Amino acid sequence: MRIGGLEKCSLIDYAPHISCVVFTKGCNFHCPYCHNPELVSPDDTGETLPETEVFAFLEQRRNYLDGVVISGGEPTLQPDLPEFCRQVKSMGYFVKLDTNGTRPDVLRHLLSKNRLDYIAMDIKTDPEHYAPLIAADCDPAVIRESIRLVLNSGIRHEFRTTCVKPLINETVLRTIAGLVNGAWMYALQKPQTRSVLSPAFFNGINRNLEDNEFSAFQSILSESVHRCIIR
Hints:
- The chain is of the alpha/beta class.
- It has helices at about 50-60, 80-90, 105-110, 140-150, 170-180, 210-220, and strands at about 5-10, 20-25, 65-70, 95-100, 120, 155-160, 185-190, 230.
- Strands 1-2-3-4-5-6-7-8 form an 8-stranded mixed beta sheet.
- The two termini are about 30 Å apart.
């Protein structure tokens, strides 16, 4: 595992559990609003944290932490992810995975081995519209398959969308609502505009949605999912 960072205590990433967050390095998307730009490149620049240090930390915190969130970057790009999850669970921790849904084969394997307790999957926009802002060659069928796997996983899960124009509008949200029908939770997220992957994306253009738009989108999704929140 190429680990780019460790947040030692979080009360919000896996609520109500107290967790730490392990950030993997490398992503196959280039979301312009990404707020972890230092984790996007898979190359050897920047510091990495040895797995041994992470497991030593987890050993020390057994009585204080409930869960481990594996985020990124995109964790499913890491060949050692299944074994990492196995070791974390063997220590008695719950495991939450954050993913962009581009590796359904990895999701399927992790679920079949009972390596996950919670999945949070980002849906960037209508799967047909990921190009060019998110990825040039993302197969929409791959995203839809990951959505299906999460919905049928039998474990707690959420889908989430960072809402920026022009990626999100009412038509897109209604398409997404149809894809996630029956989901446990959906989170509509407000973007950060500082320290992002592509600052020029926000220069001179208002990409943000108004509060009334968030409320309208929340109403749309609430018809399809058990719970919809705005973050």
